[in-house]
């Protein structure tokens, strides 16, 4: 006598009949990675700006943190057209996989930032390759 099959039961319980559970799980994990990439560093960006010596006044820290956030979201907005064009030519799957890989590389490089301008460039690079919500 075989027991009940419980593998993937939670995801199948959430999916209506006919919706493939595995691609949905992959898409949801990519969406989680995007949210993590853009929100995880927001808690320490103020301290990062102070450590880089961009300003000594705590009242001005938000100005520089705003540019770090803009680098991610602004480049993501501007690059969405190019990434959409590339995904139309190559397909969604290769673009999503390459974006996930490069997004991880840029997140690691952001952790090794040594000055503000390097962190700004790396944050913009993360925005270029973090296009999961757009595709």
| Total of helices | 6
Strands, total number: 0
Order of helices and strands: HHHHHH
Please estimate the helix content.
over 70%
Rg is 19 Å
What is the distance, rounded to the nearest whole angstrom, between the alpha carbons of the first and last residues? 45 Å
| Mean pLDDT, all residues | 83
Binned strand content: under 5%
How would you classify the helix and strand content by structural class?
Answer: mainly alpha
Main β-sheet description? none
Stretches where pLDDT is under 50 for at least 5 consecutive residues are none
Shape category: elongated
Walk me through what this model shows.
This protein is elongated. The mean pLDDT is 83. By secondary structure, the protein is an all-alpha fold. 72% of the residues lie in helices and 0% in strands. The longest helix is centred in the middle third of the chain and has 30 residues, at 61-90.
Q: Can I get a quick summary?
A:
This protein is an all-alpha fold and 135 residues long. The protein is 72% helix and 0% strand. The longest helix is centred in the middle third of the chain and has 30 residues, at 61-90.
Task: Give the topology, please.
Blueprint: H1 9-14, H2 21-39, H3 45-52, H4 61-90, H5 92-111, H6 116-129
Notable traits:
about 140 residues
């Amino acid at each position: 006598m075989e027991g009940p099959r419980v593998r993937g039961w939670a995801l199948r319980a959430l999916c209506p009949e006919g919706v493939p559970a595995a691609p949905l799980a992959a898409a949801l994990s990519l969406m989680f990675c995007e949210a993590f990439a853009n929100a995880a560093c927001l808690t320490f960006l103020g301290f990062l700006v102070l450590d880089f010596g961009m300003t000594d006044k705590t009242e001005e820290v938000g100005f520089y943190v705003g540019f770090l956030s803009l680098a991610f979201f602004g480049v993501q907005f501007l690059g969405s057209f190019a990434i959409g064009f590339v995904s139309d030519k190559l397909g969604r799957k290769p673009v999503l996989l390459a974006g996930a890989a490069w997004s991880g590389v840029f997140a690691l490089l952001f952790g090794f930032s040594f000055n503000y301008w390097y962190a700004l460039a790396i944050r913009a690079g993360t925005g270029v390759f973090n296009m999961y919500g757009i595709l």
